[in-house]
Known about the structure:
- This protein is of the alpha/beta class.
- The chain has 11 helices and 13 strands.
- The strands form 3 sheets. The chain has a 7-stranded mixed β-sheet with strand order 1-7-6-5-4-2-3, sandwiched between helices.
- α5 (133-141) links the parallel β2 (123-127) and β3 (144-148).
- The longest helix has 37 residues, at 287-323.
- The site of pyridoxal-5'-phosphate (PLP) has 14 residues, from α4.
Amino acid sequence: MTALPKQGSTLESVMDRLRSLQVDDGDYHNARTWGLIYNAGPEVDAVVQAAGGHVLLENALNPLVFPSLKVMQRDVIAISAGILNGGDDVGGAMTSGGTESIFMAVKTARDRARAERGIEHGRLIIPRTAHPAFIKAAHLLDVEWVHMPLGEDLRTRAADLEPLITENTILAVGSAPAYPFGMVDPIPEMAAIALARGIPFHVDACLGGFMLPWVERLGKTLPAWDFRVPGVTSMSADLHKYGYAIKGASVVLHRPKANLRYQIFMFADWPGGIYGTQAFLGTKPAAPIAAAWAVLNFLGEEGYLRLAQQTLDATSKLIAGVESIDGVHVWGQPDMTVVALGSREHDVFAIGDRLAERNWHFDRQDDPPALHLMASPRHALVVDEFLSDLRDAVRDAAPSSTTAARYGDDVSAEATAR
Ligand SMILES: *Cc1c(COP(=O)(O)O)cnc(C)c1O
């Protein structure tokens, strides 16, 4: 058990120790991580460090004390709504990440259904590939959830939505794209069904919100997936993914923006005064707000398009390379920069073990088994090396692996603790 040292140390020695703890960490500066980090290169790193560092000690709990944080949040929300083709009737809040944005979207739908339709115990309908944050939200908010089945082609089928809608359905969801195979759900068809049944529809663009707009602009034709689609009542989009901000930055947007009244929390009967919050957090870090605001302004449309082109080129090269290697393939048809690598001949996790030995990091997923690769601009530098290592890994892979599929933290010890 580590105890607080009796005596302090110098900054230098603390930092030395911190750095020494990092020896086994994923090397994202050299793009060895195919997930968790969205690396846009040293110039963007410097921008987020400068802006984030500048406000590091501030608190966005009360932006009346730091009006700059209110202005920056308002800007980030308006810019995000614009990127997602929202009009003046779209409004929202900055949150700490996709999980909080999704939580607030479900909470808003729950409270709106309570107030407007008298529904006490609501139902949430999500595709099988939707992020588990929806299930976490449903669990915490005491909302029942049901999965739409997944098609043979690993796609969500809009026709599966209708039969799951009940009198007490408070929200249906589509992803743009979904994390596992990087494919965008049939948003126009799903939202049309929800609209016809009078049910709110959320598009989870946590992953694609700051990438798909540029993918379309660069010439790929996709069915509409954002506020262009009638019936879309809320969206989530993570600035800390392809927005290239620092961790702790996302937006949740509502249409009409008056629905925000179901999201906010206010309590007046406290000796401490009126407690009001836009989303879940109380004390709220300022650095992610300032870093997101800074990087949006630093890159502009032109910068995001350039980085998207770079990332798409790396992805195309990756996909073509994978398809050229016997024994491995890509699952589904990825719509942007997220690729699930599978194998019908080998245990793909055993291939993953060989790649891990060469210091590549990625998530592993089940059903079907796959190595999950998310490209970011920096991967343009390493995709050839990765493909060469992959070729070797397929050749040298053991017959099987004992490594588990995992996305988040390993909580098995806590789960079984007595
Ligand atoms: C990352 C992600 C989330 C959750 O976001 P966090 O920021 O990790 O909480 C939700 N949906 C999708 C599609 C994601 O990729």
